[in-house]
Fold this sequence. Notes:
Layout: H1 19-25, E1 44-49, E2 58-61, E3 66-70, E4 99-103, E5 108-111, E6 122-125, E7 131-134, E8 144-147, E9 156-158, E10 171-174, E11 181-184, E12 191-195, E13 205-206, H2 208-212, E14 226-229, E15 235-239, E16 242-247, E17 252-256, E18 273-276, E19 279-280, E20 289-293, H3 300-305, E21 315-320, E22 329-332, E23 341-344, E24 350-353, E25 356-359, E26 366-369, E27 374-376, E28 386-388, E29 400-404, E30 410-414, E31 433-437, E32 451-456, E33 464-465, E34 469-475, E35 483-489, E36 492-494, E37 497-499, E38 502-513, E39 518-524, E40 535-543, E41 546-547, E42 551-556
Parallel strand pairs: 19-38, 33-42
Antiparallel strand pairs: 1-31, 2-3, 2-36, 3-4, 4-5, 6-7, 7-8, 8-9, 10-11, 11-12, 12-13, 14-15, 15-16, 16-17, 18-20, 20-21, 21-22, 23-24, 24-27, 25-26, 27-28, 29-30, 30-31, 32-34, 34-39, 35-38, 35-40, 36-37, 38-39, 40-41, 40-42
Amino acid sequence: MSVISDRGLSTVMCRVGRLGLLLLLVPWCVVWSAHAGGSGRRGSWELLLDSTGAVAMHMALTYCNTVVMFDQVSAGPSGLRMPGCGPEDDGKRSCWVHSVEYDIAANAVRPLALETDPWCSSGAFLSNGVFAQTGGYGDGVRRVRYFDPSDPLPRWSESSELLVDKRWYSSDHVLPEKDRVIVVGGLNVFTYEFIPKTAPKEGAFELPFLRQTRDKKESGDNLYPFIHLSSDGNLFIFANRDSILFDYNRNQVVKTFPTMPGGGPRNYPSTGSSVMLPLDFSDGFLKAEVMICGGAATGAYRAWRRGKFYRALSSCGRMVITDDEPNWAMEDMPGPRLMNDMLLLPTGDVLLINGATHGCAGWRRAKNPSHAPYLYKPNNEAGERFSLLNPSSIARMYHSTAIVLPDGRILVGGSNPYKNYTFGVPYPTELRLEAFTPYYMDTFFDSRRPSNLSVQCGEDRDRIGYGDEFIVRFELGRRPGKLVFVVYAPPFATHSQSMNQRMLKLGCSGLVRETNGAVHAVLKAPPSSTVAPAGFYLLSVVNGGIPSKFEWLRFAHE
């Protein structure tokens, strides 16, 4: 399988646009302020499936509006047999489903075969929408797998190219260079490397920061390091409590940031989570701000070995990593939390979901589920940013995941703090799949919700070049409120990591409203792949705080 082909672009709605005419008609965007209201609403939950067959330990949304889910083949019997296998085949590893493709529209799963074990692995999307998946456990620890969602019958494909080092609990990030992914760290591995390889003998490169942040007594506390691509092209890397700005091309630390306060480490097994807040056209996409929330208390791993479950951290920290003198600004969540997922919403707010209140990550090392999500509004005044949302009835502990769907819902699955599929115990293996619907998707707001989005990116084109102008057409039943245009790179989610998650607020240079309610907006693409690495993004139009459903578009190197 080619991993850099340009197939399967039928879902990108690109048509000929009269860009020049619109630019003549309206040289600026006119907006009116409006109150979204309903900020006190707390969202709702829906059970989608009683069983996905396989635990959603890892989860990723594809541009074909499917979700690929998988766990570990070493877990043994799962909740679903592969086609053609019967009870007489139960002893065969290949006869149990440990990966599925979820069709969002059909609300159904299709089993996928896995050749090697991707347990606790990492991943990223290439520019053509192919999912690149790295590392794992046992026979999968040095493997690279690809999943092309545009294939007529998508399947996992194992690359003959191996990773240089063993990668278990590593992190990936897509880079500005076309189809280049960095793979960082892993258990007792203090290096980084790249995929795909550009030379037959391309090796791995030492990263002493990973060795410096390892706590041997706490089983690491630097695994699954948080990685964010800064606006200057360098990587922000956070492990344990410390962080650096790293030039991966020169293998050089550019800046060392202050140690994060708050009472404990933030990385596996003291698992918290991290996001980079949306980049904004208004400052040239220069300001980059990272937020990290939750984690385990100092000594939680050793305490668990003594049968004690320490209270998790309740602190969050924000830091503008592009400041001349950056420092952490700390604040508290409504309660303690670890193993939480952090997702960027189209409103620019942050959703914290899943996890527990005591212990640390790993097999049966935590208790007391965090059933209620938190909503965080970063632009509110300090002390008024967090709110508590409606709880789920399902415990989402270790090995649970969450992602944003194109229709605005949050897909939530997984949880398995056991080595095998185990039921009838506290916090059993969880195969149920849920959706959380944020308040702004309520039908109450439909009259002010932009609808029927389409992207017009020029004649004979199926992608948008950097710095190009393109047209977004949408319908609006009433006069616009304050319009914001956001694009969102969906993450690969696992172990409270949302790898490669990224959001940008785009500039608008012209706006036309037709008598039938249709609106044409002239938007400008990000200036470079440093700001937005090439690939598929979800576009949403937010009207007075109420977002449309997403529409796919693609930014590409010319």
